Amino acid sequence: MYSAGDVRVEQRADPTIIEPTDAIVRLVATCICGSDLWPYRGLEPADHQVMGHEYVGIIEEIGADVKNIKVGDFVVGSFVISDNTCEICRSGYQSKCVNAAFVSVAIGTQSDKARIPYADGTLVPTPGQPDEDLIPSLLAASDVLGTGWFAAVAAEAGPGKTVAVVGDGAVGLMAVLAAKQLGADRIIAMSRHPDRQQLALFYGATDIVVERGDEGVAKIKELTNGLGAHSVIEAVGTQESTMQAIRATRPGGHMGFVGVSHDVAIPGPELFFSEIHLLGGPAPVRRFLPDLIELIWDRKIDPGRVFDLTLPLEKAAAGYAAMDERRATKVLLRL
Amino acid sequence: MYSAGDVRVEQRADPTIIEPTDAIVRLVATCICGSDLWPYRGLEPADHQVMGHEYVGIIEEIGADVKNIKVGDFVVGSFVISDNTCEICRSGYQSKCVNAAFVSVAIGTQSDKARIPYADGTLVPTPGQPDEDLIPSLLAASDVLGTGWFAAVAAEAGPGKTVAVVGDGAVGLMAVLAAKQLGADRIIAMSRHPDRQQLALFYGATDIVVERGDEGVAKIKELTNGLGAHSVIEAVGTQESTMQAIRATRPGGHMGFVGVSHDVAIPGPELFFSEIHLLGGPAPVRRFLPDLIELIWDRKIDPGRVFDLTLPLEKAAAGYAAMDERRATKVLLRL
What we know:
- Two copies of one chain form a homodimer.
- Chain A is an alpha/beta fold.
- The first copy, chain A, folds into two domains: about 25-145 and about 285-335, Alpha-Beta Complex (Quinone Oxidoreductase, Chain A, domain 1); about 145-280, 3-Layer(aba) Sandwich (Rossmann fold).
- Chain A is built from 13 helices and 16 strands.
- Chain A has helices at about 35-40, 85-90, 105, 120, 135-140, 145-155, 170-180, 195-205, 215-225, 240-250, 270-275, 285-295, 315-325; strands at about 25-30, 55-60, 75, 80, 100, 115, 125, 160-165, 185-190, 205-210, 230-235, 250-255, 265, 275-280, 310, 330-335.
- In chain A, the strands form three sheets. In chain A, strands 1, 2, 3, 6, 7, 15 and 16 form a seven-stranded mixed beta sheet that branches. A six-stranded parallel beta sheet of chain A has the order 10-9-8-11-12-14, sandwiched between helices.
- In chain A, β11 (about 230-235), α10 and β12 (about 250-255) form a beta-alpha-beta unit.
- In chain A, α6 (about 145-155) packs across α12, α7 runs parallel beside α8 (about 195-205) and α9 packs parallel to α10.
- The model of chain A has no long low-confidence stretch (mean pLDDT about 95).
- At the A-B interface, β12, β13, α11 and β14 of A face β12, β13, α11 and β14 of B.
């Protein structure tokens, strides 16, 4: 991204092994994330920035210390580099690994090859070479599915629970899928876009609420005996969506927030008197990847449907424009 | 409290049973809370306001529907009225009961008698008439002990955990006691007052940190291998103490906040990237009262030491002054 709105695909030098824990991945597919739109729209700085942090591909080369992955393996990687051995990783928060680095900043996987540091800690091989139709779903696991899943876990979605999802982008839709898999009784998707409502229903939503802000909160309370939802997922990252999520959560309930927070300030007194659990942040996708790959491999979930436009990598600029103009929910880029 | 700084003890009409779920309690002891200092200092409005929300006493009269308490019982009550039967109460969040009311606002227990609504849901009888020396500890259970306990539970203090406590007032000290009882490995009290440091050590603190703000955070990190504490308790309620607590918590760790939040705004992006669990608010003391009474009755804990000044109720004004001027940590008022 040369600057806001100016995305170009250019030839760069091939990556090479630098550290003995590195691996070189030849990418098979990558994609454009909702978070890539922040710099595209000029809301975050962009100055000749490499882009992309979601990726699946085949291992082309490994460093001397890589033990769990071999050349030729098909792998899915997390959008945050992690060693998966430090105390924070072992507690399940690999996105805050003491050696964490964001793939988007450090590497940029909207490319045909990528050097992945801490390959053993970041990449997970699939059981074999995947069928072609599984590739979108495996790619989704790299971020949007893993992030939606973390949000649902953070919100403690599960049996007996009513879950409300604020945000109908790819992550919100994946959170619906996750809540369903985790056994939630009732899943309320907050969406006013007919196509996304349909996808939410496909993924397991039981109710659709079109209202937003305080009207949306009132509707959630109306559906929950005046109390609010047990579990609320925030998948946008604005002040309005954050407050909508806090206010839609019942006392003692859980809010999981994964929309990258921009210009948000949470009023302390309101949070105090709402008496809810909060957990959010960059999802520790690595924690969930083995289970998510298994669910996809066994065709128990179909997260790949979240991609509604596929383009060759060379057409990345057209993909950004389609997402920016909301003509696509999520764009897959093929190599 | 006629106005800020002007506390008077005056004769009022005796309370009477209004609802069949009410009880009249003849108070044996009450006390002054740190939160009573906010209006005393003019930081919250006060206009001929009844005061007090912590209380133990003997049941003098009960309404027709009160089943679990009888005349003559010695009882400890929560600082929030709760029916203890609604869905929110049953989930353990009695302080957010659908029929919740703050005793401080609705009743005011710095008095010799009080009408307690939802007596079955709010009051817990002791196993018998307590020995005189147990009264301060039972009174502490009504708020500061119950609040410190909730903070420690919210912060998930327990075996294998390092706990840091921000705030060395009565609640912070009770949180130290709770963390110890819950089995925490290491308990760091953040305090610069020698007498409170001593009490923190008595209650189970293993380390004292005198630094505050970002220096305090740096010290906590130094003591925790650079990661931050697993469990952090916030027991002040200011912007500085809130940020100190957030920053002292390791990724994936838990922060329990019980200092009544005043003029606090939590920056969304910082909270997002800190990736910590949060839970706080007015403590659901009623959830913990049966266990706390048992621990006190069996003399396994001695929370009553937190009272360092005892005065007759008539001298309430002197008690406020002593706490305001930090000559006392917590003042007990005897009837």
